[in-house]
Amino acid sequence: MSEYDAIDLALLRALSKDATQSAGALGRELGLSQPATWRRIKRLQDQGILAGRRLDLNKEKLGFGVTVFLGVKLATKGRVSLEDFERAVTAIPEVQRVEHVLGLYDYRLRVTARDIADFERVLRRRVMTLPGVGNVEANVMLSEERRPGPLGDAT
Q1: Can you name the CATH fold of 66-140?
Q2: CATH code for the structural domain at 6-46
Q3: Is the distance from CB of 143 to CB of 11 less than 8 angstroms?
Q4: pTM for the complete prediction?
Q5: How far is residue 63's CA from residue 43's CA, in Å, rounded to a whole number?
Q6: Of 48, 54, 57, 98, which has the most beta carbons under 10 Å away?
Q7: pLDDT tens, 81-126?
């Protein structure tokens, strides 16, 4: 990250806290003009550093009170391709995140459901019927906190 200066890093930290801020508001916070801030944001996007902006929804207020992390071990790697599993699992709307991992499991899934009964339905009727699924381990999320990430809070 040596090609990025302190202003770029401060801009990335500010956007990671609230990606809805305008270039003008960010510029005022960082001591830059709106056009200069916009040019920096555009350069960071063009370089792939800013890969998008994300909207965080309050899942509980939308009626989705349960989040479960599933560790999925594929039973038949040779007969079912990873692409087949990934294509099928990403079609399940309750699966919010699919991570291909190294370790005890082949995949880690983040599943959001209305309640435990709804999660059980998703598990039995959708996840367990996916191509190649072997062992599945579920961990119900009790609480979550957002961490600042690799940029931290230092300036």
Answers
A1: Alpha-Beta Plaits (3.30.70)
A2: 1.10.10.10
A3: no
A4: 0.72
A5: 39
A6: 98
A7: 788 899 999 999 999 999 999 999 999 999 999 999 999 999 999 9
